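pasting for ref
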Amino acid sequence: MVTHDSSVDLGGITSEASRIILSFTKELIPRIGTRLESLSITGSCLTSDYIPGRSDINSVLVLTEISVDVLDRLASMGKRFGNKHVRAPLIMTREYIERSLDVFPVEFLDIKLIHKTVYGKEMFVDLAIDKSMLRLQCERELKANLIKLRQGYLSCTSNKKALTLLLLETFPGFFPLFRAMLYVTGINKAVPIPKMDVLTGIESSFSVSIDVLREIHALKASKRVSLSHEQATRLFNEVYRITHEFSLKMDRIS
């Protein structure tokens, strides 16, 4: 049973993750002091996809100001909490959020959809995400991913391990994009959060078979990934295909 600090709200977070988050916040809050306006937890540790001991714990800090001194204080915590799968937090100010919604709408939508403010003021629930900007970034990211996949494939030089790693590194980036695409095209529909629900929703909404991503998800869950060159090449071809198809579909949405 985790004893919660009175100023930190960890309700709804699994006991495994909350123990780590409580330790992190109890050290972080005094280090930042009054410059800390808000601390929110984001990502898979708030969802059914969370795997204790394997999944990362992500967070967003909203500060009144950002200085090298503050960064140094946070950096001193990095190694100890990194060993507990606590990733370096995103750090921003209110002004940065207000001025960046049109630049990073996909990222801010994902924070809005999957976050819990555990300390300080709520900053993300009421974010206004422009669907036209969201559609544009989705198209841009998909087309950029095509370039990365081509370059990555050439760099692998027929190395099956390198090709497998390329696929595993590409896989997580689909989910913020898919949620954004469902948000753009959905009318009064809740955007799914768990990964398998996202895949089902995107497949239904866009009529694109994405069994390859379910296959990669299963590979990641198995811990030991050993593919033949033929298997890795087949998966790559499928990932490239769906990325291309989705880029065309987002281009056609007005």
